[in-house]
C-alpha cells in the first residue's frame, strides 16, 4: 500500500499544482479508481481506494472516503475533501497514481524478500544486497560509534571512510557534516528517515534512517543517491528495512544475550586493590592481549534519556571499544568503567574526539575522566576521582564531559566539609569587597574575578568586561587601596583565586 501523502506530493511535483484539503500523514492507499458521471455506488466506496473525479460532476458529494476532485473553481470555496483548481487530464493523473502504487508494490515485495533472507539467517550483508537490488544505490549500515557493520556493494569504499584494524569507520569530516545538518539529533529522536546534502559531495544526497532496539538508537542506514535520485517510496522502504535490521542486530550477543566480560576480573582486582605487583598486572594485561603503555586514565559513563538501561551492557562496551581502541571496559557496581592507556599525555590524542562526542550525544551518555597516572596499581585512587565526578551535583561539565582537572578543588572542599567549614577559607579581603560592592554599587569583585578568569591579563580582562583598559587599571588601583591586593604578590594572588573557587563551590 502506498502513502496518500506521497501520492499527492508526486501529483503536485509532476503537474506543478497545489492540492487542497485535509491530508492525513499516515493514510494508506491500495488502488485508484476514476469516477464517471451517474456513478450509482457512491455509498459503497472502498476506504483503501483513492477516487478521482471532475468537480463539475461530483462536487455535491459528501463522503469521508478519499476522493480527489479536479477543476475546482477558485471562487467556489470548496472545503469538501481533496481538490485541485486546475482541470488536469484525469487519465494522466490516474497513470501517475498507478505508477506510485506499482513502485510501492515492488518495494513491499522486496521487503518481503529481505524478511525471508532474515529468516534464513544469511546476515546483514545478504539483507543489504537484497535491498540494494531495489534501491539501486549504495547502502551502508553503521553503528552509533560510526563503525561499519556492512555495506552493499560489499567492497564499496569512497572518501567517506577510514580503515583501521581491517574495519571501516566514517571519517570525522563526514561526521561533522552530519552534525551540522542535525542528522545525529534526528537519528536519536526520530524513527523517520532524513535526506540531506553533504557539503563535500556535490550532486549527491544522503538518506539516513535510524535503527532502534527497545527505543535505544543502536545504528543507522546511510544510503547515497550515487546512481539515481531518491524517490518518495525510498524513505518508506528504508524505514521497513531498518526494522528488519533491528531484528537481525538483536541476534548479536552484545545487543541481547548477556555474556562473560573479558576484563571483569582484572579490572575488579585493580579497583579493589587485590593486585600488589605491577609486574603481575602487566602480565595479566599481556594475557588479555592488551598493550601496557606509559599513561593511564579511568573513565566512567552515566546514562540519561532513552538509552538508560535500554540495552545489554555489552553493547555499550562494544561501541566504546571502537572509539577507545587501547582500553578495557566493564560494568562495576552499575557504572560503566573504562581503563584507557596511551603513550600520549593527552587522553584524546589516540582517539577521534568527534566520534566520541557524537556517540555520547546519540546515546545520551555523560563521561567522567580522571587525572592521568602512570602506576597501574593506583587505578583505584583514580576510580574514586571518577565516582566523585559522577555523583557530585556541583561539578563543571563541558560537552557532556566531566574532567577531574576542572573539578579537583570541589573534591577537596567536599572531602573537607566535615572538618573545615569552607566559608572560613575565603580570604577576608574578598568578603570585604563583596560587602563594599553592595553598599557602594561598585563592581570590584566582578573585575577581580574576571582578572583571574583571563589568566591575569589586563587587556583580555578589559575586553572581557567591555571596559577601557584605563578603567580596568583604575579599578585595580582602588581594589589595592581597599585591600592587600598586590599583582606582584604570588601568595595573595593564589589566596584570592582559591577563594573565588570556594565561592563558586558554595
What would your notes on this structure say?
It is built from 18 helices and 19 strands. The radius of gyration is 32 Å and the shape is extended. By secondary structure, the chain is α+β, with helices and mostly antiparallel strands. The two termini are about 60 Å apart. It has four domains: about 1-100, Udp-n-acetylmuramoylalanyl-d-glutamate--2,6- Diaminopimelate Ligase, Chain: A, domain 1 (3-Layer(aba) Sandwich); about 120-250, GAF domain (Beta-Lactamase, 2-Layer Sandwich); about 265-415, 2-Layer Sandwich (Alpha-Beta Plaits); about 420-505. The strands form five sheets. A five-stranded mixed beta sheet has the order 2-7-6-5-4. Strands 9-8-14-13-12 form a five-stranded antiparallel beta sheet, sandwiched between helices. Strand 13 and strand 14 form a beta hairpin. It has helices spanning about 5-15, 55-60, 90-120, 125-135, 170-180, 185-190, 230-250, 265-270, 280-285, 315-320, 355-365, 380-390, 405-415, 430-440, 445-455, 460-465, 470-480, 490-505; strands at about 1-5, 20, 30, 30-35, 50-55, 65-70, 80-85, 140-145, 150, 160-165, 165-170, 195, 205-215, 215-225, 295-305, 325-330, 335-340, 365-370, 400-405. Helix 3 (about 90-120) packs antiparallel against helix 4 (about 125-135), helix 4 (about 125-135) runs antiparallel to helix 7 and helix 15 packs across helix 16 (about 460-465).
Amino acid at each position: 500500500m502506498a502513502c496518500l501523502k506521497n501520492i499527492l506530493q508526486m501529483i503536485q511535483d509532476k503537474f506543478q499544482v497545489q492540492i487542497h484539503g485535509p491530508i492525513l500523514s499516515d493514510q494508506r492507499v491500495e488502488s485508484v479508481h476514476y469516477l464517471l458521471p451517474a456513478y450509482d455506488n457512491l455509498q459503497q466506496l472502498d476506504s483503501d481506494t483513492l477516487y478521482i473525479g471532475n468537480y463539475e460532476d461530483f462536487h455535491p458529494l459528501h463522503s469521508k472516503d478519499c476522493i480527489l476532485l479536479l477543476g475546482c473553481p477558485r471562487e467556489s470555496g470548496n472545503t469538501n475533501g481533496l481538490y485541485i483548481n486546475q482541470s488536469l487530464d484525469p487519465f494522466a493523473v490516474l497513470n501517475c497514481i498507478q505508477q506510485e502504487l506499482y513502485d510501492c508494490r515492488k518495494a513491499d515485495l522486496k521487503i518481503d524478500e529481505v524478511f525471508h533472507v532474515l529468516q534464513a539467517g544469511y546476515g546483514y550483508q545478504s539483507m543489504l544486497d537484497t535491498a540494494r537490488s531495489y534501491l539501486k544505490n549504495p547502502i551502508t549500515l553503521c553503528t552509533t560509534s560510526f563503525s561499519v557493520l556492512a555495506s552493499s556493494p560489499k567492497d564499496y569504499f569512497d572518501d567517506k571512510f577510514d580503515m583501521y584494524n581491517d574495519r571501516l569507520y566514517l571519517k570525522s569530516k563526514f561526521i561533522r557534516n552530519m552534525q551540522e545538518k542535525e542528522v545525529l539529533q534526528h537519528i536519536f529522536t526520530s524513527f523517520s528517515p532524513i535526506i540531506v546534502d553533504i557539503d563535500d559531495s556535490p550532486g549527491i544526497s544522503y538518506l539516513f534512517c535510524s535503527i532502534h532496539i527497545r527505543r535505544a538508537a543502536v545504528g543507522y542506514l546511510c544510503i547515497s543517491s550515487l546512481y539515481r535520485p531518491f524517490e518518495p517510496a525510498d524513505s518508506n522502504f528504508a524505514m521497513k528495512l531498518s526494522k528488519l535490521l533491528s531484528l537481525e542486530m538483536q541476534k548479536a550477543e552484545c545487543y541481547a544475550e548477556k555474556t562473560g566480560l573479558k576484563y571483569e576480573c582484572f579490572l575488579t582486582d585493580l579497583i579493589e586493590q587485590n593486585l600488589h605487583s605491577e609486574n603481575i598486572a602487566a602480565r595479566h594485561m599481556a594475557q588479555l592481549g592488551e598493550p601496557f603503555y606509559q599513561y593511564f586514565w579511568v573513565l566512567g559513563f552515566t546514562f540519561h534519556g532513552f538509552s538508560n538501561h535500554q540495552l545489554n551492557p555489552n553493547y555499550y562496551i562494544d561501541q566504546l571499544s571502537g572509539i577507545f581502541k587501547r582500553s578495557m571496559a566493564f560494568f562495576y557496581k552499575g557504572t560503566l568503567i573504562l581503563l584507557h592507556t596511551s603513550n600520549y599525555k593527552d587522553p584524546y590524542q589516540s582517539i577521534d574526539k568527534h566520534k566520541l562526542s557524537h556517540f555520547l550525544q546519540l546515546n545520551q551518555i555523560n563521561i567522567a575522566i580522571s587525572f592521568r597516572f602512570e602506576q597501574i596499581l593506583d587505578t583505584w585512587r583514580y576510580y574514586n576521582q571518577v565516582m566523585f565526578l559522577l555523583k557530585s551535583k556541583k561539578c563543571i561539565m563541558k560537552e557532556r564531559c566531566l574532567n577531574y582537572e576542572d573539578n579537583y578543588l570541589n573534591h577537596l572542599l567536599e572531602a573537607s566539609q566535615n572538618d573545615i567549614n569552607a566559608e572560613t577559607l575565603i580570604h577576608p579581603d574578598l568578603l570585604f569587597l563583596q560587602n563594599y560592592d553592595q553598599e557602594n554599587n561598585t563592581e570590584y569583585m566582578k573585575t577581580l574575578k574576571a582578572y583571574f578568569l583571563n589568566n591575569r591579563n589586563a587587556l583580555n580582562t578589559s575586553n572581557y568586561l567591555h571596559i577601557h583598559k584605563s578603567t580596568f587599571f583604575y579599578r585595580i588601583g582602588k581594589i589595592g587601596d581597599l585591600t592587600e591586593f598586590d599583582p606582584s604578590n604570588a601568595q595573595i594572588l593564589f589566596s584570592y583565586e582559591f577563594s573565588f573557587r570556594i565561592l563558586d563551590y558554595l
